[in-house]
């Protein structure tokens, strides 16, 4: 695998995280706590692998410039900015929510999960949208590896 394959890997990891989150939500709505726990831990693991791959890629490549012009540029940067801010905020939220769930501090877990779940899902889905816009709809041209 080449370093230039990592954006596609990252998009796949983000999509996988989103699917796992939705499945975990459905499991807890069905009161299947054991399945919910496994799916949430899987989503956390997938997101951790994503973060490692993301950091490796950007350490080697740096930032990749968006080539779209006109209104799509505004759309892209609006999504990117909200994604970036929430991606930074979601890490401590996920860690705290997982901790509370694993310790079976259910009332506190539920209160925090009401915020964590939709934000984490948004970050996962917009990660795929950003990848699609940046690398497929408006490709950047050759990627330079440092």
Structure, briefly:
With 146 residues, the protein is mainly α.
Description:
The protein is mostly helical and 146 residues long. The protein has one domain: Four Helix Bundle (Hemerythrin (Met), subunit A) (Up-down Bundle), CATH 1.20.120.80. The protein is built from 4 helices and no strands. It has helices spanning 6-29, 33-61, 71-102, 106-137.
Radius of gyration: 17 Å
CATH class: Mainly Alpha
In the CATH hierarchy, what is the architecture at level 2? Up-down Bundle
CATH topology: Four Helix Bundle (Hemerythrin (Met), subunit A)
Percentage beta strand: under 5%
Largest sheet: none
State the end-to-end distance.
17 Å
Number of domains: 1
CATH superfamily: Cytochrome c oxidase, subunit III, four-helix bundle
Q: What's the average pLDDT?
A: 96
Helix content: over 70%
**What is the overall silhouette?**
elongated
Uncertain stretches of 5 or more adjacent residues: none
């Amino acid at each position: 695998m080449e370093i230039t394959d990592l954006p596609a890997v990252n998009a796949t990891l983000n999509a996988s995280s989103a699917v796992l989150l939705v499945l975990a939500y459905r499991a807890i709505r069905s009161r299947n706590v054991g399945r919910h726990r496994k799916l949430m831990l899987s989503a956390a693991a997938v997101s951790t692998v994503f973060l490692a791959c993301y950091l490796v890629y950007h350490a080697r490549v740096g930032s990749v410039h968006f080539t779209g012009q006109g209104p799509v540029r505004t759309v892209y940067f609006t999504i990117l900015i909200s994604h970036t801010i929430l991606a930074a905020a979601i890490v401590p939220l996920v860690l705290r929510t997982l901790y509370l769930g694993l310790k079976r501090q259910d009332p506190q877990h539920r209160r925090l999960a009401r915020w964590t779940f939709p934000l984490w899902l948004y970050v996962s889905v917009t990660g795929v949208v950003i990848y699609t816009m940046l690398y497929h709809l408006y490709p950047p041209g050759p990627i330079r590896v440092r």
